[in-house]
What does this fold into?
Amino acid sequence: MKFRKKPIVVEAFCFEGADSEINAPDWFAQALDSENATLDRAIKDGHAHVYGCTIDTLEGKMHAKKGDYIIRGVNGELYPCKAGIFHKTYEAVK
It folds into this structure.
């Protein structure tokens, strides 16, 4: 048997590191506040730099790097997706 994904609409944004804290949708900011997501930082040249984030997903903790998409699923669950896969799987909704 073959199956096709049902057409569903999800919310998502491209994670760009430090700018993501400023430009993130409210649902991602709430995930950071509730610690369901954390920003991954490293000290470089004496300053903290965001290089990714860790997200509590239904499958456990998953990591996103700069350029990955953070998706909010139909039940509010969060998960990361590599940009190439995201663009093959999703298209913008008007």
Remarks:
- Strands lie at 11-14, 37-44, 47-57, 60-65, 69-72, 78-81.
